[in-house]
Task: structure prediction
Amino acid sequence: AQSVTQPDIHITVSEGASLELRCNYSYGATPYLFWYVQSPGQGLQLLLKYFSGDTLVQGIKGFEAEFKRSQSSFNLRKPSVHWSDAAEYFCAVGAGTSGTYKYIFGTGTRLKVLA
Amino acid sequence: ETGVTQSPTHLIKTRGQQVTLRCSSQSGHNTVSWYQQALGQGPQFIFQYYREEENGRGNFPPRFSGLQFPNYSSELNVNALELDDSALYLCASSWDQETQYFGPGTRLLVL
Result:
């Protein structure tokens, strides 16, 4: 079955520290992978996506993610966190079935940033 | 270029009532997908519309229905509301089945 696991429900980091949010997926074919960010009361903003090619992808706001097929992972990283990065982060896999292309989301990781 | 918009932003209904949520897709997009996000959860796929036809459905009962109009805007209708329908409803648009861009959502509270 197709699924996405985000093992960390909450993460707290100090401003200026590095960040890594974990994402593992289960999908039978080559996955399309996404990271979205959701601020309180807001919709989802696309941070970055992986379709094919270079396994290290750059996104907005200084984020990057690395696709590792052998580990079925797509972890999100940022070298130096800003207080404005506090939000909830969702990893998703794009799954195509019988002509329908939908996203399967993880349960999210809530990031808290300490000043 | 305008992004995805949704209306209303918030809604309060009582059990058994019906509700209609609206979504305007991003300019140039022909596909609209709807997701339900319960509190503390990731979004769950409800269904997708492509060129005015339902193009796939998630594990939601038939009382969840939708429409897509010739301008690619869309409605989500929920009949016989239940308490568990309280959630943030997200609309996402895309060109064919590529990257989906989400609206701000409609928060529905069922009392």
Chain B has a mean pLDDT of 93. The radius of gyration of chain B is 13 Å. Residues 46 and 58 of chain B are 5 Å apart (CA to CA).
